[in-house]
Structure formats: C-alpha cells, structure tokens
Amino acid sequence: MTDSSRRVDFVVVSNRLPVDHVVDDDGTERWQPSPGGLVTALSPVMATNDGAWVGWPGRADLDLDEFDADGLHLVPVRLSSDEVDRYYEGFSNDTLWPLYHDVIAPPHYHREWWEAYVAVNERFAAAAASIAAEGATVWVQDYQLQLVPRMLREARPDLTIGFFNHIPFPPYGIYSQLPWRTQIVEGLLGADVVGFQRPADARNFQSAVRRLTTATTSQTAIRLPDGRRLVAKAYPISIDSASYEQLARRPDIRERARQIREDLGNPKVVMLGVDRLDYTKGIGHRLKAFGELLAEGRVSVEDVTLVQVATPSRERVDAYRQLRDEIELTVGRINGDYGTISHQAISYLHHGFPREEMVALCLAADVMLVTALRDGMNLVAKEYVAVRHDGDGVLVLSEFTGAADELKTSLRVNPHDIDGLKDAIVQAIEMPQAERRRRMRAMRKRVLEFDVAYWSSTFLRELAASKNP
Ligand code: ADP
Ligand code: F6P
C-alpha cells in the first residue's frame, strides 16, 4: 500500500507497470518498457490523462516508493517470489490464460494458486484505494485483477470503477470448468462498466452472469438484486495509429527498412511475424505452412524470407518453455533443410526491439502473418496497417483474433487449416498491386479513425455516464 498523501482523480490499475525493473549481468539496475499489448495501448492514454498507474514492477521482492517517470506517476505493488509463482505464473498464466484462450493448452487448477490470486488482488485494490481521491475514477485492467472491482467497491463506494478485459472471455461451456467461476464473476460485477474486446466476449460474460448469479441482463445492461446497474459491452482496443505512421515517415526509419531488406539478401518477398512467444499465437502453424511450401517448391528461399520476431515471455511457465523448444527446433530444421549460404529461410529473433526497429520491420515486410489460434485483439495487425502509409503490404490475419472483426479486407485465415493457410500465403505473395492497395486502403481508414484515443475516450465517457445515483 502507498503511504503518500498524494491523491488523484484518475487511477489505472494493471498487473504490470509500463516499465520493468531489470538488473543486468554486471549488476546495473535499469528500467525497460514492459512487454505486451496492454502497455502499448495504455501508455499514450496515460500520457494525456493526469493520474496514477498502479502495477507490479516486474521483479519479485522489490520494495519501491511511488515515483514519476516520463510524465507518469507510478505506484509499484510488491509481489513476493512465492506470489510471482502462484498468482502471476500460476493462476494468471497457467489457469486463466489457457482457460480464456479456448483451452489451447490445458489449464491447471490449484487451490493455493487461487488463494494467492485473492491475496494479491486485495493488495492491488488497497493500493488503488489509497491513491484515489474522493469520487475518483479507477480503471482496472485485465484478467490478472478480476476481483479488484468488487474489493474496491466494498472499500470505497464513492469511486467510479471501470474494468477492461484485454483477452477473450470464453463461452460458458469452457468458463464453467473454473472452480472459482462464481467468485470471479462477482468480482467483475463490482465495476460500473465491464469492457471487452469483441461483442462475443461481452455476450459470453453475460451468459456466465445469468448462469451463476441472480442478476438479470438485457442487451448490454446488467441489473443486480440490490438495484445497482452496470454495463457490459465491447470496446475494441487500438493503437496510437498516427504516431506509428509518423515514425514510418521518418527518413532514417525508411532507410533502416531498406537496409533490412538488403541485409536479408534483397529477396523478392519479405514476410514478417511478430509475437510474444506464446502458444496462442499459432507460430508453429505458420512455420508448418511455410516449411511445406518450401518442401513442395511452391516458394523458394531465394525469393521469399520469413522474419520471425518471437518475444521472450513467461519463461518460467512449463508450457512456454516447451513451446520455445518446439519453435526453435522447427526453425532450425527448416533453415537446415532449405537454407543456402546466401539465403536463410527464416530469420529468427528472440528479443525485444525499440519501437523504431519494429516500424522499420513492418515497412520492410511485403506480407505480415498473424496466425493466432485465439487473441483478444492483436495490436501487431493494427500496427502493420498504421505503418503502411504507402498503401502497400498484405495482412494475413487469423479469424480468431479480435482484429479480424474490424480488418475485414485482410486475407482472413483459419490457422488450423494448414492447406488453407498455405494457399493464403501464396495468394499474399502473388497478389496484384491494385488489389493490395484496395485492401490496405479500407483497413487504414478503420485503424486511423478508431485509434486508442477513440477507445479510451469512448470507454471513459460511458463510465462517467454509468455512475449509479
Ligand atoms: P500481446 O498483448 O498478446 O502481447 P499484441 O499483438 O496485442 O499481443 O501486442 C503486442 C505488442 O508488443 C505490440 O505493440 C508489439 O509491437 C509489441 N512487441 C511484440 N514483440 C516485440 C518486441 N520483440 N520488441 C518490441 N515490441 C514488441
Ligand atoms: O493483454 C495481454 C497481456 O497478458 C497483458 O495483460 C500483459 O501485460 C501482456 O499481455 C504481456 O504478458 P505478461 O505481462 O505476462 O508478460
């Protein structure tokens, strides 16, 4: 809990702060941007709103006071290493994450993980309550903190409380596996507005509310037995589109994109994948499709190169360790089987990059491959579109992403259908320029108009209007 006397009118609460505290091998301590779409989306929102951001600084057992960084007021929440094991790696990322992503990997249920989840949610709620001024707005983020809305409401009925879920909310048939399904739904019902990425997620949540509580629902409204009303609906998240386009117009970044193509041996076609190394992202399916195309001679390494950025993620969770081994084995095999001295099939990069380099990669790529098996939104897809101010480039996009609801002129794929995915990759490679431009124009209109400022202002406006008298 914070002991500062400072109180603010707007508080964001998320598992992670926008920066992680890291210690290099030589003992140097520093802060670096933390991974994931949540931070990408919320950083520009917080830069334009005065307020505080409550979150974990990314390392265990770290006692830190509140501090200001890059114009943001950050309130660190301490997690012990046992809590990192049980609340973050356990319940958040080995129970909820696979359960909410269609059980692509088996969720594990452990009572001691749940107990840690409750205790840590209480700590986040207490930190938010102690920094929030009378009548403040508190915006709680994502699946790690689903109990916080109710805890906060009980402690501070004066607050206006929003919740946004960045990942999918599963159909009841899957959700009902969760031994603590009722407690989670009741936790979320503490909010005034519960936001989701897609209308389907909001409907799944409402169905869980009807099955597990005595609340009633009508369209986007939920009425609780005590008469309190709340809203549950979709607010698709986005990016600061204009800032990506601005970066893409910078001469040094354009030159860097040219350099990347040259360093790759100037192939006719550069394809790109950018994902946290997560089993939801369908990286293995993408590699299988590309490997088969090379094996069948439908594409050649002289003509087509795949750059795969696989960002390190959750490396102490077993399923992520195994995934890394599988992906790196597959990349090694494909490169061994099809690479030549001058041309590699796959350029594989397992580390973070500055935003400028990500933009240069998008500019350098003729085809962006997003083949997630399930993804709340997928901001990488929107970033590719925002960067392509030249109107060129093809986005191959899984229909199982939130982004597919909006980017309807992408080349939509079912990544489970490897033959269909292979055909889509060939179609992307061979697509005539006029068709590429027509498709990209429609997607750019959407991404530039419905940017992250639109997302946050819509959510916060409806949150302000929803406050019960
Ligand atoms: P998720 O939230 O599941 O990680 P998203 O695609 O929604 O997936 O968001 C990922 C964000 O992280 C994007 O803004 C993307 O540009 C960024 N990102 C992914 N990999 C890297 C990397 N290696 N270096 C820097 N930024 C990255
Ligand atoms: O939105 C998905 C999300 O899980 C965020 O909550 C999270 O910050 C990000 O992806 C990255 O994951 P992690 O914080 O576990 O590294």
TrEMBL record:
Superkingdom as given in the UniProt entry: Bacteria
GO BP term, example: trehalose biosynthetic process
Entry GO MF terms: alpha,alpha-trehalose-phosphate synthase (UDP-forming) activity
InterPro entries: Glyco_trans_20
Alphabetical list of Gene3D superfamilies matching this protein: Glycogen Phosphorylase B (3.40.50.2000)
Membership in a protein family: Belongs to the glycosyltransferase 20 family.
PANTHER family found in the cross-reference section: BCDNA.GH08860 (PTHR10788:SF106), TREHALOSE-6-PHOSPHATE SYNTHASE (PTHR10788)
Name of the protein in its database record: Trehalose 6-phosphate synthase
Organism from which the protein derives: Diaminobutyricimonas aerilata
